[in-house]
Amino acid sequence: MIEKERHVLIILPHPDDEAFGISGSIAAYRNMGVPVTYACLTLGEMGRNLGEPPVATRETLPEIRKAELIKSCEAMGLEDLRMLGFRDKTLEFEDDEEMVKLVEDLIEDTNPSLVISFYPRYSVHPDHEATARAVVSAIRRMKEDERPKLYAVAFANNTEAELGMPDVIHDVQDTIENKLNSLRAHISQTVWMMKETEDKLAQNDPEIKKWLRYERFYAYKWDMDFK
Ligand SMILES: [Zn+2]
Description:
Blueprint: E1 8-12, H1 17-21, H2 23-31, E2 36-42, H3 61-76, E3 80-86, H4 96-110, E4 114-118, H5 126-140, E5 149-153, H6 159-163, E6 168-171, H7 176-185, H8 187-202, H9 206-213, E7 214-219
Helix pairs in contact: 3-7, 4-5
């Protein structure tokens, strides 16, 4: 059961971050008529992958990834995509206050009832961590009764040992096709993984169906410190 929201604000650093664990939920919100804004901070231009066969060169990768991101948003029915133009792999060096201000501006502009981002300390990549820190800091500074909910995606190895099981699980069976199309849209990054996924789907593999069907989040607890 996915709760209806007033407005959902997604804040992630890389094109394709949305595809793996959030795209089914985004499509479900859109089907419910919930407005969804996706702020994608970089164009992932430092990505190591260029597709197989290559669909991009080092020089064209930013444009290719931009086009892939737009296609992914179409697959999810998401209309409010904001590409913020930071440089990939540099977010950790951005001024923390500037990042917080950016999140504050996004929240002020969209007035979300729910924000979805990464979980600080449990999201592996330095850009993910920098994004997560800024999101948590910005919301923490708001008055308690004005804060949107924060659903955080965590996938570090120690996540379940330290945080327990995710407390918000979305069954996205109804939007699995949207999710697959979002994953397929990011072909320069997902081609290898999608080959395997489509093979397993063709064989009716229960594990892959389960992986696609359930999206897992931690509802951020504001009494926990992230530092
Ligand atoms: Zn990423």
